[in-house]
Amino acid sequence: MKYFPLMSCLFVLLLLGCNEINPEGEKEVRQFVKKWNEAHTQLKAPYLGRDYMARVNYYGKERTRPQVQRDKNLLFQQFPDYTQRILNDDLVITKEAGSYLVAFTKRVNYNGIEADYPAYLSVMFRNGAFQIIREGVAKNAKDLDAPIFPSARENMAFQSENRQLFGDFNGDDISDYATVISPEISTTTKTEAGSDALISCKGACNSVITFSAKDLESITIQGAYQSQLENLKDLNNDGADEIGFWDFKPNTKTLYVFNATNGTLLTEPIVINTSVHKNLDLIDVFKKTGPSKITVTRSEQINGKWVLKSEVITLD
Questions:
Q1: Residues 258 and 189 in one domain
Q2: Which PROSITE patterns match (predicted)?
């Protein structure tokens, strides 16, 4: 019986060790928040995901870790020059039940804009590391409709149904985005092996590339119902990014290379026979190989056999 108090103490210590409420103290919390803040760049964005719990209260809404990572990636795609820092390195840390509340002023810079926001994180020590359970800004903060916050990205047109591609498509040195309006498919009819299925759409079976920049005209691709966009960067040295449009069919995929400023094609559509030439990515069929020069590779049938053929194209 004399060992019972000692065993009880050991049991309590083990419980506290398992909960990992306070590994060492506020110094470690400060180090964690500093690293998290420094990771808010496009280069270090992939490291941010590990800093969050599986489910997070993220700017007032419950989100999963992948959803938070996706939002951060969209932020850095939309504003490649985005930076943030903790003003005066001043953190106010308050212990809560099993966690730490960290309050600070976040100074952000993007698109030439500088702004300060009263921000906070709640962090908890789990599985040998700190993780974020809550991130947000004070409800009374000004300019909460700024485009750097998740609510702005949620309200972007077609966000829930269409992938947005960020770039400078009109050459004004400001990031904008493109997205695709796809047709609604009504029926799909199977055909013989080796042939593409017959697709019927409600209305015209066309896809339309739209741009957030008001001075850019939409681009229509006829007969396209499943697609993906690519930012091909500035190919013709006009200061604007070119845009690639993948048109996917059951046995083929076709890459259209558009000059976004005027909607013209820079080369004939690049068709790949995916039943023969499988698993080819963008880098396999399209490369910038010099000033105003690109090399494209397409599927061609020569003497009854499908081969890949490359050519160098000089752009105007």
A1: yes
A2: PROKAR_LIPOPROTEIN
| SS3 state at 180 | strand
Domain count, the chain: 2
Please indicate, yes or no, if residue 145 is contained in any of the structural domains.
yes
Q: Are 244 and 255 in contact (CB under 8 A)?
A: yes
pLDDT block averages, 10 residues each, the chain of length 316 = 42 38 74 94 80 94 87 80 93 91 95 93 92 94 88 55 81 90 70 59 83 90 91 93 94 96 95 93 92 94 94 90
Per the structure block, which two tokens stand in for 312?
A: 């160098």
Domain enclosing residue 106, as ranges:
21-154
Q: What is the DSSP string of 92-125?
A: EEEEETTEEEEEEEEEEEETTEEEEEEEEEEEEE
Q: Which residues does 77 contact at the CB level (< 8 Å), separation at least 6?
A: 42, 166, 175
Does the global pTM surpass 0.85?
A: no
Note whether 297 and 208 are same-domain residues: yes
The Cα–Cα gap between 288 and 51 comes to 37
Do residues 257 and 178 both lie within one domain? yes
Count of CB atoms within 10 A of residue 90's CB? 9
Secondary structure of the chain: what % helix, strand, coil (to 5)? 20, 45, 35
Question: Does 3 map to a domain?
Answer: no
Co-location of 146 and 180 in the same domain: no
Q: How many residues does the chain have?
A: 316
- Report the SS3 class of residue 182: coil
